[in-house]
């Protein structure tokens, strides 16, 4: 099903730059303030290949300057091309939400582009036209994959995971530490037996896009443009894109919730919550300070992970925990939140949500501060989905509501780049 190949990566020369300073988060999680900080951090920062310095410049740029920068860094040796096609193993060490040490292992490889209808590469959320148009301009200008699609596969028997661990344990590694404290160790996997094993394993399985839906659909659009412009075979460079792959069930994989903050609708009182959520059970929890919210959620919300549940916070010092029995086996709580809470309680349909009526903080404390500082009226804290739920939904050809999942840690930009100048090997 899924076709992957090794490739000759374009990489920073670690003797010329400080890798800690040049790598950057994926472009779509960088705020306007962070964008300027990353731009100013290092003259060779990867952010300069992904984003304009000012947000307002995106509408008019054609990214020709990025193509020139990419070429200049190669001429001066800041970026160097590996001599042989390889798959690149990545070990990430980080701290989880409770401070626990975690390790996630995966790899970078080329992924053959497939239409969603073939059910080989499976999306889990909808995309927006604006970001895809911007990324297409960048891909046309640079003819390079500057950041990867983040993809999940299922390996409950840890067949491929064991192979990756053995290669990451025994090889020379290139290391970097990002601003979030995540340690990244990269190793080139070049022995033929390992490469063949990885290709065989994924050839029997589909993959699910965890992050990078806009980049994937941009790669499809660019592929279709090039197909119309030239005759070429299945190994043409534009038939493939850069992917990062990891096991959804590996011990280090972390799937976190993305919370909701209702921006402007009035906070309901107890009577309104009860009348608008028939069939839901409510509980009031005293919350003397914002800092106590994570512990309260762990104590009162997390045990309700087997059913639709959420915690509402209007900044009053009282949290309201709501839950109900599943309407059917396997019902997804995130869908109930959108259909019954956002729509019925607050009168917000999916069009209003897409138009900005709801914010999507990735951390509970961020959502709590939004409410208390006037950037919203009610925070809705959610439990995370489980990997098997994501695979069940995508396997059925369905999509999740917008911003349903947050996979941690992110895959940084700058560890590997991939020029579209060679056929897949």
Task: Explain this structure.
The protein is α+β, with helices and mostly antiparallel strands and 425 residues long. It has two domains: 4-255 and 408-419, no CATH class; 258-383, no CATH class. It is 33% helix and 23% strand. The protein has 14 helices and 21 strands. Strands 1, 4, 5, 6, 8, 9, 10, 11 and 12 form a nine-stranded mixed sheet that branches. It has a six-stranded antiparallel sheet with strand order 15-17-16-19-14-18, sandwiched between helices. A two-stranded antiparallel ribbon has the order 2-3. Strand 16 (309-313) and strand 17 (318-323) form a beta hairpin. It is globular and about 70 Å long. The model has no long low-confidence stretch (mean pLDDT 94).
